[in-house]
Amino acid sequence: MSETIENEEIKNLKREVAKLRLEGNLRKSLSNQLTIQKKIADEAKAEALAKSEEVEKISKQLAKYLSPQIHEQIFSGKQSAEVKSNRKKLTVFFSDIVGFTDISDELESEEMTNLLNFYLNEMSQIALKYGGTIDKFIGDALMIFFGDPESKGHQNDAKQCVKMAVEMQELMSELSGYWAKNYSLKKDLKIRIGINTGFCTVGNFGSLDRIDYTAIGSTVNLASRLESMAEAGTILVSEDTYALVNNFFTFKNPKEIKIKGFLRSIKCFELKEEDTSKEDIFFLSGKGFQISINKKLVKKNSLNDLKSQLDILLKTDKN
Question: What global pTM score does this model have?
């Protein structure tokens, strides 16, 4: 009887030992699996981080080939890389360096490259300051538009564009003497600018393999034509742009010009050099009156004359 009980206890002990060994092996196996899984997870995390850094690096490189607004739209998912377009009202800007062909003949290619890169960089910084979408560089020429991918309203888009153009011309005046000193040019560089406002087709154009984000249409063509018709150092705007910004800037008398590709004569306005911005213009209008005063240009005797006329009107009204 006691022998049977002893055998039974031995069997139970053996089963416990086997059970403990099994649990030990399971724990060891589980520990090994966890170590392997952790290693895989760490490797995956490192790979993901490396790929993220690579994508960020590529993104920064692509940013140099795209206007910042378009780059942000693409990488935020707001803009897809597919061939499509929309109709929008834009203010379109063109500029180029007067006599650039002759200048390029004077300089060695290295000097020409340095000059052009400096000039385009300075102009681009001003464009971005005012929120312009830099469409493209065409040699020495720039095409910039306002109103896409984001618009602050047609009038404000046009005003920002003209303010940008004014600052560009001011910078070119400030750089007087710089070109001769640094690039051995006989004359200072001068630019001419054309601006037009109207509806354009804007979006992605091209093939399935290669697309370009740009704006096309008669509005773009007219802005380009106005630029080519502008005198050195001037800003020429269309009638549509003038209608939006004439309360903020002063212009010379309108002139009508014949432009190739347009059946009718085009009325355009040249911005006065002494003009600056809305801050210098007092504008007041109401039923039966409209007053616009350029605080930089107005003379005291003119203000006295205006006051006298207003006093007469007030006395007449009381009677």
Answer: 0.68
